[in-house]
Design goal:
By secondary structure, the protein is an alpha+beta fold. The protein is built from six helices and six strands, in the order H-H-E-E-E-E-H-H-H-E-E-H. The N and C termini lie far apart (56 Å).
């Protein structure tokens, strides 16, 4: 059964109840949470975000923001969610989130387009490998 799952595309498989020691299981989960597809990796030990060819050293708050966004890469995250999860504050502070997102974008250089924002929906990190054509069109028309 495990072999069938791996052949079908699974990257890892653990029998339940887990036959692994707690520490090993936690290490496997952390590795999966921090590594996404398309050469994007968030390293907790060095507080570094590697995105394609860019290595960005993050502050602890920026790391928490990116951790949340990568864990929820398939959906938009509200300012309130980011404030609670990353800033560890009960009061939503749109300006603090906005300033931190701006700092992350500066550090991401040519990969900054991945960190999306929308006034209505919030923030998300695009893990797809190609830059959307709409963004290319916009950058050419604004010159």
């Amino acid at each position: 059964m495990i072999l069938d799952l791996l052949r079908a595309g699974a990257t890892d498989c653990v029998r339940w109840p887990a036959a692994l020691a707690n520490a090993e299981l936690i290490a496997r989960v952390r590795t999966r949470l921090m590594t996404t597809r398309q050469n994007i990796k968030l390293d907790a030990a060095s507080l570094t975000l590697t995105c394609c060819d860019v290595n960005a050293r993050l502050t602890l708050v920026e790391f928490r923001l990116m951790h949340h966004l990568l864990q929820n890469a398939a959906r938009w995250s509200t300012t309130e969610e980011l404030t609670i999860d990353a800033l560890r504050s009960g009061q939503a502070s749109e300006s603090v989130v906005r300033v931190r997102v701006y700092a992350i974008r500066r550090k991401l250089k040519q990969q900054a387009w991945r960190l999306r924002s929308d006034r209505k929906f919030g923030y998300r990190f695009d893990i797809d490998s190609s830059r959307p054509a709409a963004l290319d069109d916009f950058s050419h028309s604004s010159r």
